[in-house]
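Comment thread on ticket #2218

A.B. wrote:
> Attaching the input chain for the structure job we discussed in standup.
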Amino acid sequence: MTFASDNWAGAAPEILEAIARANDGAAPGYGGDELTKKVEARFCDIFEKDCRVFFVATGGAANGLALSVLSPPYGMILAHEQSHVQMDECAGPEFFTGGAKILPVAGFGGKLTPDAVSKALAGFPERPPHGAPASCLSLTQGTECGTVYSASELTALCATAHDAGLSVHLDGARFANAVAAIGAAPADLSWRAGIDVLCFGGTKNGCIAAEAVVFFDPAKAADFDFRRKRAGHLWSKMRFIAAQFDGYFENGLWLDLAAHANAMAKKLSAGLAAINGVKVSYPTEINEVFAVFPAGVAERLRDQGHIFYPWITPGDPAGGKMQRLICSFRTTDEDVASFVDLVKRG
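C.D. wrote:
> Ran it. Output below, let me know if you need it in another format.
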């Protein structure tokens, strides 16, 4: 069984069908086609706001390019110490921003608090030109630890950031999972809470390569066309990214896929937590489960061919013993039940 990553799950059949439909005939390149325009307008409908939407192929490019707008090269970006922009993008944000400093901030379960942000900012008083000025707060929804921010939590964090003169970026690689988990409107978990730029991911939830940078203040996107082109993410056949989002949004597919993945993770989490000697480390609120197994169990399961990975970060409370298991739209009840049974047997 594979609980390695939702990136391993492949594409949902509906997404493949949408790509096939878009392949019929010729269409203008570089986003000049009607399907791209249609899907850009669909984002505005979903978020209940006129916004600027830019498609790119990867979440790393989306985050780096978005942060390049929000921070100058000499700026400082606050982010959770376990966040993707801090741990997993090979200094991509630093590259795209031209050298901005990322300041890691601790917080339980992948989440930041207004108090933690305020304390971090207080440790860097204004000392021009010696100190890097804080420019941006980067949040992740759902988080790297499988938790979610409520709308009120996001609102409080955004208010703290804006009061300090910072913009707010949201890494939404698993935004669909968060929306499905909370049941709130996408607008309530983004611009209404104070988010300035959202990186909206589809790749982890049934798409092939579909990410969107969504600017809720169009003025902030004034030169983004040039930034995207310079970064090599202006697809000549943009209709095939648009097609994925077209299929993704049709009949609420994006939320159905995410809700299924979340439900499987909750069953997995509950099953593991009921086993003597297993500790679930964080609340399971989206499709990620973090657990510590009895000595030797994880190694034996891997030797049997089951795939999942250890989770080791600067904020690791388990000293390198924690395991991360991720469910997807393809995870089944049988997968979960069989894996839990294997863990029970030790």
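A.B. wrote:
> Thanks. Noting for the ticket: The longest strand covers residues 134-140.
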